[in-house]
Write a structure and sequence with these properties.
Order of helices and strands: EHHE
Pfam families: X8
InterPro entries: X8, X8_dom_prot
Membrane topology: Lipid-anchor; GPI-anchor
Strand content: 5-15%
Helix content: 25-40%
Distance between the termini: 16 Å
Shape: globular
Radius of gyration: 12 Å
Number of helices: 2
Main location: membrane
Subcellular location: Cell membrane
Amino acid sequence: MNVPTTEAIWCLAWGDVTDDVLQRGLDYACNNGADCAAIQPGGRCFYPDAIINHANYAYDTYWKSHNRGLNACSFGGTGLIEIIGLDPSTPTCTFPPSS
């Protein structure tokens, strides 16, 4: 089952887990289709340099590269589909649109 296309949906990291747990999800996403070049040093989304920000970007790009399937936003229970109008982009990092 896929989530309907809309600009206001992202797959984000659950912020209430340890950095080690987020790092495992981030590593999985980056090794399996996420666009992680943007969160590497010198990349356009490296800043803010925080694990939660990097995980958010990696989870979202992984999810979008896997046809926005519900299971593609699991990451061992640390991913969640955010269906609100709050764009997770930062002033230095624009998340790709959902469509």
